Amino acid sequence: MKVTEISKFTCSVYKFVAPLVLDALKDNHVNYHILQRARSVIATNKRRGFFNGDIAELEVETYHFYTDPKDEKAVYDSIVAKAGLNQEGRGSLCVETAILIEGGEDNSNIGSLDFTVKSEATDFTGVYAITQRGRGNDLARIAVNNGSCVPYVFHGKGGGIRDRMGLIRITIPAEKEMLNIVVAEHNGNGLMNLLIDGGQLDRPGMGFIFTYPVKRALMDRKSTLTVKSAASIGQIVAAIDELKNSTEWRKKSYISADLPERRYFENLENIMLICDDTQAEAMLQAAMDAGASGATISTCRSFSVQKDQNSTSQKAVEISDMVVGSNQKKDIITAVMEKGFFGKEINGRIIVKKSNLAFSYVGKKK
Amino acid sequence: MTVQRERISVPFKQAVQMLVPYCKSKIWEQITAVLPIVLYLIFFQSVVLGLSIAESGTIAVGIGLVVLGLAFFMEGLLLGIMPLGEILGIKLPLKSGLVVLIAFSFVLGFGATYAEPSIGILKASGSFIKPWDAPLLFVMLNQYSEYLVAFVGIGVGFSVVAGMMRFMKSISLKPFIYIVISITLLVSLWGVFDKNIFYITGLAWDCGAVTTGPVTVPLVLALGIGICRSVGGEDSGSMGFGVVTLASAFPILAVMLLGFALNTKVPEPMSKAEFFSEANKAAAVFVAGGEELYESLKSDTGDPADKVQQAINLLTVTTEKFVDAARAILPLTLLLLLVFIFILREKLPKKDEIFFGIFISIIGMGLFGIGMDFGLKKIGDQVGSRLPASFSAIEIREEGETIYNFDEKVVQTSIDESGQTSQFFFKNDKNMTYKAVPYHSENFDAKKKTYNYIPKIGPLFGENGGIGGVLVVILFAFIMGYGATLAEPALNALGMKAEELSVGTFKKATLIHSVAAGVGCGIALGVAKIIWNLPIIWMLVPAYVVLLFLTKISDEQFVNISWDSAGVTTGPITVPLVLALGLGLGGQVEGVIEGFGILSMASACPILAVLVSGLISKRRSRNILAAQGGTNESH
Q1: What pLDDT, on a 0 to 100 scale, did the predictor assign at position A168?
Q2: Is residue A39 in some structural domain?
Q3: B 512-531: CB under 8 A from A
Q4: Do B628 and A225 touch (CB under 8 A)?
Q5: Inter-chain CB proximity A167 and B353 less than 8 Å
Q6: Which residues on neighbouring strands pair with residue A155, listed in sequence order?
Q7: Is any Cβ of chain A less than 8 angstroms from the Cβ of B631?
Q8: In chain A, how many domains are there?
Q9: What's the alpha-carbon Rg for chain A, to the nearest Å?
């Protein structure tokens, strides 16, 4: 078992930018990445045509990959430059500090799992919300209308208590939508609360939300469609954004950073289990036996550059995303390892990241 | 340190609480899908045609069964049949060789043709064909109908193989379309030089449309999605769609091939007298399929309407519906399960869900079948058979009555401006309203002194054969096609998968409504074909030429989904309604030799509609991206 510190990148771009990102990855010898399909949600602010509402949804490709922390800055700059991400309307890029766990010859060194993910002061906070399929746009609308960056929505399946029930489970839809938004650090909690209130996430079965620290980010700020004209309000706003070097000045103030009386979970870590297709459910069951409360599973594709550097092999992988208490991490990782997580059938790898706060309906205190 | 996974048992009361809203939402979904077409048929029959609906009670129960059946069937598809197909698609390429995959695909395609019998539909479509008008068509539908099914099966088998190979090798669908459609069009154009071939083109194109049924489509789709997930390149963009397209196109070629092979044995189309002449006897006996059948053909002209009635009545047996459902679902799912157990040697994940899904899909399909016969099909037949009343006078046999003690003395003679005389008599009803009724001596039974009175209605709009009435029929056809398509289960499954795989950027509702509009236009054109007796090939060729062009300029993803939607449209709701419409018109309009072609138009137009809507939505996203300022640098 190999435990290494990494910088985990998440790059979400529109389809036409994707080849540029891939070029940048190649240039920087990033030999492994995962592609997840997503959509962006932007406000159109007016009805455009008969069938179109107040929002537009556009196809997005999200790339997950990681580098050595010392290469982080160089890779980041290279992608931004190559894909033109400092231009609006192309995509977003963010970096988190994380730990990568891979299988090795000898997987008995369990002691190396006693690590902690470095937590440092960051400028950005990511908000990740999980809700029922079909409600992603409702949450996205709340974020967009409050002047945050472009939200990205992913599809996944929920795993949790549902899978432990008998056939009656079919009455609970497993399909989920996940929403990812990165905002300035001091707005993180405010946005989380807006989403909880607006998305009614404080009701039973409505979803789960958590925040996480983001070390470095360049977010697509153009979350509202602006009309093309000589000098539009949009351009003026963009110009001031550039002068101020942030979008803070134009944000409708989020609800104060003081958190309302809610029972938040703290001391959390976000575990991403990456494994071969169709294996995630069994792994998730093992993780749940060891204490995890539930997870979302997304089907993605992984691309690894072969040793000869000329060809790329690709396959379907499943990512199970779960938020657990820091003290549960070791049990969970050991449990999935015992189920052969690093074996040939599953080819797993684990990425552990820090998470700040999480919230979900837990029922009334007895 | 294996912790035994604890199962959560849900108490009965809570289970009911969970079940009720779940069932409610599933049933409501189907009600909203079926209601438009039902309301429309009722409206048309009672308000536009001004006729009462016969057996309205039975029809209401039938429609209820259709809704219930669809709800069960859809859920069964999503829980059982599609996950089974997908998991097999994921595992098969990884665990077995190419040969196994090819063999399996062929068996699946070939078997699907037998599992979902469409030959009955085609036979009914051709029931009023006279052997002397189109001998080749007659031979293929009767004496050689088993060959016809086998050829269609081989066509579908090859297409599934080709489709799966496409995914394995990430080949674009476009070259397949260019080549197969061009050949098919050229072969069909041959009909201009050969009358016999001319008459089978409609059949061939319709075969392509009806082969892909409500079980085959979702199954093949799921299998393709699975294969793409495990081996397909992301860049191919097909995502698992495209097999249904080939499964619609290859059978056309197969049927044309059979036609060419048989063409040497049958005589040219001729008049009835020539057909039964002594010189032609050998050929005619061959066409009829034996001496006995030849004699019976010679003596009995047969009323096409009665034959059809019989064909539909036979199907109304309830058990038969469930047998049909089991036959459509069980062999195919068993094949998949056997491959899973004996070739992959793996444990089936979520066994309970999959078996339950298969079970309720059979229940659903059975209920649906019964409901169709008692409900939707009945009202469809009523409207279909009376629809020609809008442009010509038709007899309403159901409302006929016998007048007893009829005396020929009441018959009077009238005269028109050219001096032509005709006979009529006055008839009154209980309300003492008097009506002049034309007198037909053949309806008078002199011995019993009874007169068989059959009321006539129409033309309701304009004069006989006038353009006004025809337009009403064409408009009716459009709306009926639109409404029926909304309820098609296979299309729903396709839309769901497309929305899922595109993370919501490709909307199911957009797809369904574009397809529905396409089907509406297609059926309207097909009806125009029947009324004006236009050659089908002159509609198919331009439509497909435009399609080939649009395919060239569209994205791979849209091309795959668009062409697939053509195959799924002609499902268990649209086909019977279209058939009723086609037969109603075919039986009433003079000079119609065959009623084929509506379904093939209903396949071509949706492709057009989806491709166009794809191009529009692509332009829209490009505009938005451009307005966002992102695209000023091209890649």
Answers
A1: 84
A2: yes
A3: none
A4: yes
A5: yes
A6: A177
A7: yes
A8: 1
A9: 20
Q: Give pLDDT, residue B124.
A: 67
Low-confidence ranges of chain A (pLDDT < 50): 228-229, 365-366
- Pick the closest to residue B354 from B70, B68, B76 (CA basis): B76
A227 and chain B: CB distance < 8 Å anywhere?
yes
The arithmetic mean of pLDDT across residues B104-123, rounded, is 80
pLDDT for the residue B305? 44
CB neighbourhood size of A142 (10 A): 20
Each residue of B414-439: pLDDT tens digit? 888 888 888 888 888 777 778 788 88
Residues whose CB falls within 8 Å of the CB of residue A5, separated by 6 or more in sequence, listed in order: A69, A97, A98, A99, A100, A118
Instruction: Identify the three-state secondary structure at position B116.
Output: coil
- Report pLDDT digits (tens) over A245-283: 777 666 655 555 566 678 888 889 999 999 998 888 889
**Alpha carbon of B269 to those of B136, B274, B279: distances in Å?**
8, 10, 15
- Which domain does A51 fall in, by range? 2-360
Name which of B497, B503, B511 to mutate to probe chain A: the one with the most chain A Cβ atoms within 10 A of its Cβ: B503
User: Which residues in chain B are contacts of A225 at CB distance < 8 A?
Assistant: 624, 627-628
Residue in B closest to A234 by C-alpha = B628
- Nearest Cα residue in chain A from B23: A171
Task: Judge whether A182 lies within some domain.
Answer: yes
**Paired tokens of B595:** 């009623």
Instruction: State which H helix or E strand residue B101 sits in.
Output: helix B98-115
Structural domain includes residue A365: no
Most confident of the following: A25-39, B117-131, B274-288, B306-320: A25-39
Residue B311 confidence (pLDDT) above 50:
no
Question: How close A116 gets to chain B, by Cα (Å)?
Answer: 25
Q: What is the mean pLDDT of residues B72-82?
A: 93
Nearest to A90 by CA among A80, A75, A104, A100: A80
CA pair distance A179, A295, nearest whole angstrom = 14
The gap from C-alpha A144 to its chain's centroid, in whole angstroms, comes to 17
pTM over 0.90: no
Q: Which residues of B touch A345 (CB under 8 A)?
A: none
In a domain, A366, yes or no: no
Answer whether B493's CB lies under 8 Å from B569's CB.
Answer: no
Q: Would you tell me which residues 182-221 of chain A have a C-beta closer than 8 angstroms to some C-beta of chain B?
A: none
Quick one: pLDDT at residue B303? 46
Render pLDDT for B263-290 as a digit per residue (tens, 0 to 9): 888 888 877 777 787 777 777 777 777 7
- Distance, in Å, from the CA atom of B254 to the CA atom of B205, rounded to the nearest integer, reads 11
Query: Which site among A44, A58, A288 would you substitute to test the B interface, given the most B Cβ atoms closer than 10 Å to its Cβ?
Result: A58
